[in-house]
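Could someone model uracil with this protein?
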Amino acid sequence: MRMYDVIRHKRMGLAHTEQELRWMIEGFTAGSIPDYQMAAWAMAVCLNGMTRSETAILTDAMMRSGDTVDLSRFGTRSVDKHSTGGVGDKTSLIVTPIVAALGGKVAKMSGRGLGHTGGTVDKLESIPGYRTELSPEAFLSQVERVGLAIIGQSGNLAPADKKLYALRDVTATVDSLPLIASSIMSKKLAAGAHAIVLDVKVGSGAFMKTREQGEALARQMVEIATACGRQAAALVTNMDVPLGEAVGNALEVQEAVSILQGGGDPKLRALCEALAAEMAVLCLGLTPNAATRQVTEAVDSGAAFRQMCRWVEAQGGDPAYLTDPSRFPAAPAYAVTAPVDGYITGMDAEAIGVAAVTLGAGRATKEEAIDHAAGIRIIKKIGDQVKKGDPIATLYTNHAGAVRAATEAYLAAVTVGDTAPKAQELIYSVIR
Ligand code: URA
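Reply:
Sure, complex below.
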């Protein structure tokens, strides 16, 4: 077989055979297919697409290109969740202890922040002592004992995807539904869970800008999981505005605690409960109604919060920071005030994410250290009425020099109008 022919087939709009796809991924992983040929192929896929069956085979081949986690000891109880990334998205910190409190087994590998979006591993590292690296045995034994462990992604998970993604990033070939779906799902499948719930974000702060794009991606990912013998469901959700009220690592952990203690933004709680209920349906075999009821009870009774404390402690984190979040080191605070009277009619989530990075909550380069105390607390959200001079957000940073630019960026990201906007939907659709 020649890579030249594989590229030519896709350029002509033909569907690949299973043999072609598996041969290509093996060769690319081993280094016998060079980057320039793989990039040419990725461009042909961007232009001509792939069938569902090609996408499932590509995903399976990339999943098998490196380590896979064996969660078979947990049977159908193992469950994972994945968000396509957003601003203020701390749902994993809330949803996973809820599901573990109900008896689900969550062995989760999470990522770091990327660009304007945050990452669960960075958030967890704001809890003193929390270890985001565990040996495979320690990881699985914690899931067995505590029901939940979250670590950083293992270095050799789906290496074919790692190489391909790096190429796509610099050859304008990220934007392809089958390539995105297979990239995300190859890592999720390699992580081993029997059931996977996907939160596909749509809007200004997300990768997918329209609901149609988000639903198409969600459908493809659910189909891939099913074709690979797993159970899956996807929620397509709004990321036009940041999720909840906090953007930034320690601030988001504190917000997660407040949701699990019965407080916080009701919309954030509603999304987390919906995600947790989908997970409970898939891993515990509950009906949707029973799952929804049990999820709400787990939060109201404090069982989910106690589960969060057990998990964090098992992983070396100091649970005193959860029971008393005032222990988290605070950065100096700076108020952003409303420039005019009116209603908040728009918030550009991506621009707010970028402002948080400027304050130190994210990295401009991979090597940069994060300031865990930095970030933004949103006081006024879409639909809220404001008077000129009212505080609409608080910026937290240890870099006083960043405050002016971040304040300007925040004000540019927020639109104030004369009339209250229509309420926005939070969950657009559920794909099962
Ligand atoms: N995230 C991934 O992991 N892969 C993509 O292709 C896009 C987003």
